[in-house]
Design brief:
The structure holds 2 protein chains of 2 kinds. By secondary structure, chain A is α+β, with helices and mostly antiparallel strands. In chain A, 41% of the residues lie in helices and 17% in strands. Chain B has a domain of 320 residues: Alpha-Beta Complex (Amidase signature (AS) enzymes). In chain B, a hairpin with a 2-residue loop joins strand 10 and strand 11. Classes of the chains: A alpha+beta, B alpha/beta.
Chain lengths: 468, 481
C-alpha cells in the first residue's frame, strides 16, 4: 500500500510583524536585506520577543483542523549550521516532553476520507539563498534575510494519503481553510510549501524536500511513487533517504548530504518563557473565529436556496464568499451568487487579476438589483461587469456610457415593434394562429435593440399590436 | 580629587557643586591611563567621555533636568552592546564587531546621564573565572598584581577596586560578578533571574545568567538596581518589579532574621582563612540579632557538574551564530564549501571557548542527552526544590563567595577541573535563579575575602538590607595601587 505523509509550511502572511521582532511579516515588498533588525539578524546580544498575535493565529489554525490545543506551549531550539539561518539555530516547537506545540493530534476530511494531523507547530522561516553564477565553479551564494523570522506554521500529517490526487485535494482544502481563517494568503509566492514522505508496500520511507509549489508537490509525489514501483518491480531495494525535487528536470534526486544523520540537539528556548493559552483564552479565540467553510455552505443552501454546487464554490473561496457576504441582501442573494459563479469567476481567476480588479461589493449589489428589476438584461450585465472591473465606475455611469440600459420606454419600444411587425408579416400571421411562435418576433425586437429591450414590456406591446 | 568616593557620594558632591563631572571624569581617565598598564582592566576607553561629562555640567549649570547619575563614570563588561562602539566579548571572533544598538541597561543608564568610560576585560565570552581566558591578555588583581582578579567580570572588579570608575556592570552566569568582586574586594550582585533585562548582553548561558552591578558599597548597588532593574519588552524573561526602590529602608537591619549556613560550602577544600572569615561573619550577623544555623543542601555536590553541562549546551547554541557571514573579522568567504568554510571561520575562538563548544556539542546530542544534559536538568530542578525548601525556613543563606583566596596567574590555567570547582559556592544561585551578593569582608595577608548571602527569588530588597548590615561591621585596608 502506498503511504504518503506531508509536512506543510504555511506563512502567517496576514500578520503585521515577524515572529520575534517588529520587522514586517510581509517581506515581499522590500529591497534585499532592508527588512531586518538586530533580532532577526541574530546580532550578538539580541533576544527574541514573541509575537503573541502569531500564537493566537496558530492556535486558531489548530482549532480549525480539529487539533488538541494544550494550555501551555513551549519553544525549542533546533541547532544546525546554514547560511540562511542568522542564529544557526531555528526557534521551533517540539513534543518531546509532552505536548508543548501549539496543536496536537487532529484531522481533516477529504470527502469521506479522514486525514489525521500529527501536530501543528509555530516556528520561524529562515532567510533566502540566491545563487548567482553560471557554473558550479564560479557560483556564488547570496543571502537575503528579509524573510528570516517570518512566522510559519508547520502542519504535519500522518501518512494517510494513498494517491497524488488525495494530496492535491487536501492541499486545496487546507489552503481554502487557511484563507477563510484570515491567517494567510496561500496564493502569495512561497507562502505555502510542503515536504512529502512516500513509501510503497515493502519499501522504506523516502522524504522529498525542496518542493517549490503545490502543483509540483503532486508531480513529485507521482514521480516518487513511479520511481519506487519501478525499483520494486526489478527487486531493487528502496532505501530510506532524503531526496530533493529538481524543479527544472521535474524529478527527485538523492541528496548528497546525510540530512537524516543530523543531530539537531533540541532543547528548550530559555529566552521565551512558557506561553499560557488557558481555556478562557481558547474560548475567546473560538468565538472570534470566522465562520467555517462548511457552515457558510449550509447557510447559503438553507437560507437563500442557492444550489449545493454553487454554494460549495462560493463558500470555499474567501475572496468570493467575502464579496457575496457584503453584496447580498435578503432579496438578491441568489442573483449575487449567480453573477459571482457564472460571470465573475472567469474574469478574476488569478491573483493578479483580483489585485487589478476595481470591483466592489456595492457594484455587485447594484448589478444584481438592476438585473432583478429589469434595468439591465443578463446579457448586458456581462459587459457592465467587464467595464466595472477595469474602471471601477458606478454601475449607473457604466450603463449610460456603454448604452447598456434596457429599452423600457413604451413609445420608443412601440416604434421598434411596429417596424418589426411591418417587416415580418408572415410571422405575424403565424403568431395569430399559433401564439407560441411570438418568441420569434421577440427575438427580432431584441436584435434591433442589441438585446436591450425589456422582455416583459416587449411581449406586452407585441400582443397588443398583433391583437392576441 | 578623591576618586575613591562611592557612587552616592559622587552624586552628592556634584549636586552640591563641590566637584564637577568634567573634573571627575577627566581624573578618572587619567587614573586609567596611569594604572591600567599594570592592571589591564580596560579593552577600550571612551575617547568622548570628558566631552560628554562637560555637557552634563552644562545641564547642571543651566538648571536643566539632569539624570540620576550626574555624569558618574561607569565601566561596562565588554559583552554588553553600546551603540557604535566595539563589543568584543574579549574574543578575536568579535574583534571588529561594532554594536549597532544599545543594550537595555545601557540605554537606561544613558537616560540617567551616566558616562561610560570604557569597556572592560573578561574571559572570552564570559567563560572562565580568572579573566585569563581573554583573547587580549589577562587582567591583574590590584591587591596583588601577580594574582588573578577572578572572573569572568575581572575587568569590572579591577576597574572598581582600582578607582578607574565608580561602578561597573558585569554579568554573572555562574559567579562571574561575585567571584571577581570577592577577589578584588568590591560588592558584586547577581539579581533574581529576570530582574534586569539581558537585551544587549551577549548570551553565554541565557537561561541562568544575569547582568549585575559591581560597586564600592551595598548602597551603590541598590542605587544601580533602581536604575536598571525592571520589566523590558525586549526581554521576555524579565519580571515586573513594580518599580521597587531598593535604597529605601536599606538600613532596616536584620534583627530576628534566620540565616542558614550552607554546610557543603564550608567543607572540603576551603582555605582556612576563608573559613575563619566566614565564621567571623556569622558571629557578626548574630551580633546584629540574626540567628544562624547550619543547613545541608545535598544537591550542591552535583551543582558544578550540572552547571557545566547546562552552560556548555546553551553556549554551543548561543555561539553558533559566529560564522563570520553577517559580521566578524576580515576573512575571505569565497571558494569554500560551506562546511569547511564554517570550520575555518570559527577558528578564532580561544581554547576555553573551544573546549566548551566541544562539550556543548556532545552532552545534549542524541544518544548522550539522557546521560548528561537531561540529568543536569534534573539536578537543576532538584537543587531548586532544595533551595526553595530552605527558604521556607531561612531568610538568607550564607557561605564564602569563593572557597579559596585569589591565586597566582597561570596557576590553574592548565587544570580546568580544579578551576571549575572554584565555582562551587556561586553556581547554586544561577541554577536556581535566586539573588546573591558578595560583600567584601576580610583580608588575608593582603588578599581579599568576600562573603556571599543568598535570598529567595524577588527578595532582592531584603537581601540588600542584610548585606548592608553586614557591610557596616567591616573595616578593610585600602587597595595598594
Amino acid at each position: 500500500m502506498t503511504m504518503i505523509g506531508l509536512e506543510i509550511h504555511c506563512q502567517l502572511t496576514n500578520l503585521n510583524s515577524k515572529l520575534f521582532c517588529s520587522c514586517k511579516a510581509n517581506y515581499r515588498e522590500f529591497e534585499i536585506n532592508e527588512n531586518i533588525c538586530p533580532v532577526c539578524m541574530g546580532l550578538p546580544g539580541s533576544l527574541p520577543r514573541l509575537n503573541q498575535e502569531a500564537v493566537k493565529k496558530a492556535t486558531i489554525i489548530a482549532m480549525a483542523l480539529n487539533c488538541t490545543t494544550p494550555e501551555k506551549i513551549a519553544f525549542f531550539r533546533k541547532n544546525y549550521f546554514y547560511p540562511d539561518s542568522p542564529k544557526n539555530f531555528q526557534i521551533t516547537q517540539l513534543n518531546i516532553y509532552g505536548d508543548t506545540s501549539v496543536g496536537g493530534t487532529g484531522s481533516v476530511m477529504i470527502g469521506d476520507k479522514k486525514i489525521r494531523i500529527t501536530r501543528i507547530q509555530l516556528e520561524e522561516d529562515p532567510g533566502r539563498l540566491i545563487y548567482e553564477g553560471s557554473s558550479s565553479k564560479n557560483q556564488i551564494t547570496l543571502v537575503d534575510y528579509n524573510r528570516a523570522g517570518t512566522p510559519l506554521v508547520e502542519i504535519v500529517t500522518e501518512p494517510d494519503f494513498e494517491t497524488p490526487k488525495e494530496v492535491r485535494d487536501f492541499l486545496n482544502i487546507l489552503s481554502d481553510i487557511l484563507a477563510n481563517l484570515g491567517v494567510a494568503d496561500p496564493s502569495l509566492e512561497g507562502a505555502m510549501r510542503a515536504d512529502a514522505n512516500v513509501s510503497i508496500k515493502g519499501g522504506k520511507k523516502v522524504e522529498i524536500k525542496n518542493i517549490g509549489s503545490f502543483h509540483d508537490l503532486e508531480k513529485a509525489v507521482h514521480f516518487e511513487i513511479t520511481r519506487q514501483e519501478s525499483l520494486h518491480s526489478r527487486d531493487i531495494e528502496i532505501i530510506q533517504e532524503t531526496r530533493h525535487w529538481d524543479d527544472r528536470r521535474k524529478i527527485t534526486v538523492s541528496s548528497r548530504s546525510k540530512e537524516e544523520d543530523l543531530d539537531y540537539r533540541y532543547f528548550l528556548e530559555g529566552d521565551i518563557p512558557w506561553v499560557h493559552i488557558d481555556s478562557d483564552i481558547q474560548k475567546k479565540l473560538q468565538t472570534e473565529m470566522p465562520e467555517s467553510i462548511s457552515s457558510k455552505k449550509e447557510r447559503y443552501i438553507s437560507k437563500y436556496n442557492i444550489p449545493t454546487q454553487v454554494s460549495d464554490v462560493l463558500s470555499s473561496d474567501k475572496y468570493y464568499s467575502d464579496l457575496f457576504e457584503e453584496a447580498h441582501t435578503e432579496s438578491n442573494a441568489k442573483e449575487v451568487a449567480n453573477i459571482i459563479t457564472t460571470e465573475l469567476m472567469g474574469l478574476v481567476d488569478t491573483r493578479e487579476k483580483r489585485e487589478a480588479s476595481k470591483l466592489t461589493s456595492t457594484h455587485l449589489r447594484d448589478l444584481a438589483d438592476a438585473i432583478q428589476s429589469g434595468k439591465v438584461s443578463r446579457n448586458s450585465s456581462k459587459n457592465a461587469l467587464h467595464e466595472i472591473l477595469k474602471s471601477g465606475k458606478d454601475l449607473s455611469a457604466v450603463i449610460t456610457e456603454l448604452d447598456l440600459g434596457n429599452v423600457s420606454d413604451e413609445s420608443e419600444l412601440s416604434g421598434i415593434i411596429i417596424q418589426v411587425i411591418s417587416e415580418e408579416t408572415q410571422a405575424v400571421e403565424q403568431t395569430k394562429s399559433n401564439p407560441q411562435t411570438i418568441n420569434y418576433l421577440v427575438g427580432k425586437v431584441m436584435q434591433k435593440t442589441k438585446g436591450k429591450a425589456d422582455p416583459v414590456l416587449t411581449l406586452d406591446i407585441l400582443k397588443k399590436q398583433i391583437g392576441i | 580629587m578623591n576618586l575613591k568616593i562611592s557612587a552616592l557620594d559622587y552624586i552628592q558632591e556634584v549636586k552640591t557643586g563641590n566637584i564637577s563631572a568634567e573634573d571627575f571624569v577627566a581624573k578618572t581617565i587619567e587614573r586609567i591611563q596611569s594604572v591600567d598598564d599594570k592592571l589591564h582592566a580596560f579593552l577600550s576607553v571612551n575617547d568622548d567621555a570628558v566631552d560628554q561629562s562637560r555637557l552634563i555640567d552644562k545641564k547642571i549649570k543651566s538648571g536643566e533636568k539632569v539624570g540620576d547619575c550626574f555624569g558618574m563614570p561607569i565601566s561596562v563588561k565588554d559583552n554588553m552592546c553600546i551603540k557604535d562602539s566595539k563589543t568584543t566579548c574579549a574574543s578575536k571572533m568579535l574583534e571588529n564587531f561594532i554594536a549597532p544598538y544599545d543594550a537595555t541597561v545601557i540605554s537606561k543608564l544613558k537616560q540617567q546621564d551616566a558616562i561610560f568610560v570604557g569597556k572592560v576585560n573578561m574571559d572570552e565570552f564570559a567563560m572562565g573565572l580568572t579573566t585569563e581566558f581573554s583573547a587580549y591578555g589577562p587582567s591583574k588583581n590590584p591587591w596583588n598584581v601577580e594574582c588573578v582578579p577572578g572572573g569572568s567580570s575581572g575587568g569590572s572588579a579591577v576597574s572598581v577596586s582600582a578607582f578607574e570608575c565608580v561602578a561597573s556592570l558585569g554579568s554573572d552566569t555562574g559567579g562571574s560578578v561575585r567571584n571577581p568582586a570577592s577577589f578584588c574586594s568590591t560588592v558584586g550582585y547577581k539579581p533574581t533571574y529576570g530582574l534586569i533585562s539581558r537585551y544587549g548582553l551577549i548570551s553565554y548561558a541565557n537561561s541562568i545568567e544575569q547582568i549585575g552591578p559591581l560597586t564600592r558599597t551595598v548602597k551603590d548597588t541598590a542605587f544601580m538596581l533602581n536604575l536598571i532593574a525592571g520589566i523590558d519588552p525586549n526581554d521576555n524573561t524579565t519580571i515586573d518589579n513594580k518599580n521597587e526602590d531598593y535604597l529605601s529602608g536599606i538600613e532596616s537591619g536584620i534583627e530576628g532574621k534566620k540565616i542558614g549556613i550552607i554546610k557543603e560550602m564550608i567543607g572540603e577544600g576551603i582555605d582556612p582563612a576563608v573559613l575563619s572569615a566566614t565564621k567571623d561573619a556569622i558571629v557578626k550577623l548574630e551580633g546584629l540579632g540574626a540567628t544562624c544555623e547550619e543547613i545541608s543542601l545535598d544537591m550542591v555536590k552535583y551543582s558544578v557538574a550540572a552547571y557545566y553541562t547546562i552552560t556548555a549546551t546553551e553556549a554551543g547554541s548561543n555561539l553558533a551564530r559566529y560564522d563570520n557571514i553577517r559580521y566578524g573579522y576580515d576573512f575571505p568567504l569565497e571558494s569554500y564549501e560551506f562546511n569547511s568554510y564554517i570550520s575555518k571561520a570559527r577558528r578564532k575562538f580561544g581554547p576555553e571557548v573551544t573546549r566548551r563548544m566541544i562539550i556543548g556539542g556532545f552532552v545534549p546530542s542524541a544518544g548522550h542527552a539522557g546521560k548528561y544534559f537531561l540529568k543536569a536538568q534534573k539536578v537543576k530542578s532538584k537543587l531548586t526544590k532544595e533551595v526553595n525548601d530552605a527558604f521556607k525556613k531561612f531568610d538568607f543563606l550564607i557561605s564564602p563567595t569563593v572557597p579559596i583566596l585569589p591565586f597566582k596567574l597561570g596557576e590553574k590555567i592548565d587544570d580546568p577541573v580544579s578551576l571549575f570547582l572554584v565555582d562551587i559556592n556561586t553556581v547554586t544561585a544561577n541554577l536556581t535563579g535566586k539573588p546573591a551578593i558578595s560583600i567584601p569582608f576580610a583580608n588575608s595577608n593582603g588578599l581579599p575575602i568576600g562573603i556571599q548571602l543568598m535570598a529567595d527569588s524577588m527578595h532582592d530588597k531584603s537581601l540588600l538590607q542584610a548585606a548592608y548590615a553586614l557591610e557596616q561591621t567591616v573595616s578593610l585596608p585600602e587597595v595598594p595601587i
